[in-house]
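REQUEST ID: PR-0412
SUBMITTED BY: lab tech R.K.
PRIORITY: routine
TASK: structure prediction, single protein chain
INPUT:
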Amino acid sequence: MLAALATVTNWVRSQSYSLPAINTFFAAADFHLVAHALAHKHTVVTHEKAAPSIHTVKIPSVCIGVGVKCVTPFEMLTHERPRFVLGT
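STATUS: complete
OUTPUT:
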């Protein structure tokens, strides 16, 4: 997990994000979510979209940068094909 945290940290710092955006990302759970997914080869499910902004570090952008698969909830549901059964 420490290597994954370092990888995410280095990637974010190597981009052109503003210092407040970087600090906000590192203070939030998003940082740990992406690092955990990287360390354990998981897929991140989020409603966020990658965006070329220096003012916000988006989860999909970081996932793409460090090689973590990232999908929307709708893509996940399509892939997993869950069945929701009401009642007994």
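NOTES: Residues 2-80 form one domain.
REVIEWED BY: pending
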